[in-house]
């Protein structure tokens, strides 16, 4: 599954912090079949793992998407990628 996620994210800059966070958010969303709330469940778990705040995780993902020319919000982007990979 990780290879499919990487393929979906190939247009993003993998060197940015938000890339790792985004990839994990998509993996979590897929493993729980979209039943996790991003702001209440996913971002806090990622933040805890990396010693960050959930706000900084969301901000890094949002910045990654913005600098890559993506017009979706982080929530909409994650849901769209997860939907495409099902």
Task: Explain how this protein is built.
The protein is mainly α. The chain has one domain (2-85): Arc Repressor Mutant, subunit A (Orthogonal Bundle). Helices cover 71% and strands 0% of the residues. Helix 2 (17-31) packs across helix 3 (38-50), helix 2 (17-31) crosses helix 5 (74-85) and helix 3 (38-50) crosses helix 4. It is globular, with a radius of gyration of 12 Å. It starts with a helix and ends with a helix. The model has no long low-confidence stretch (mean pLDDT 91).
Give the topology:
Elements lengths: L1 H7 L8 H15 L6 H13 L3 H14 L6 H12 L1
Helix pairs in contact: 2-3, 2-4, 2-5, 3-4
Describe this structure in a few short sentences.
The chain is mainly alpha-helical and 86 residues long. The chain has a single domain (2-85), classed as Arc Repressor Mutant, subunit A. Helices cover 71% and strands 0% of the residues.
Q: How much helical structure, as a percent, in the residues?
A: over 70%
Largest sheet: none
What is the number of E strands? Answer: 0
Number of domains: 1
Sketch the topology as an H/E string, one letter per element.
Answer: HHHHH
What name does CATH use for the topology?
Arc Repressor Mutant, subunit A
| Global outline | globular
């Amino acid at each position: 599954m990780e290879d499919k996620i990487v393929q979906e994210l190939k247009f993003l800059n993998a060197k940015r912090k938000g890339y790792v966070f985004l990839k994990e958010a998509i993996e979590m969303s897929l493993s729980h079949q979209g039943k996790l709330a991003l702001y209440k469940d996913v971002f806090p778990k990622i933040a805890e793992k990396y010693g960050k705040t959930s706000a900084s995780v969301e901000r890094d993902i949002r910045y990654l998407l913005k600098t890559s020319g993506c017009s979706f919000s982080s929530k909409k982007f994650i849901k769209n990628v997860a939907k495409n990979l099902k």
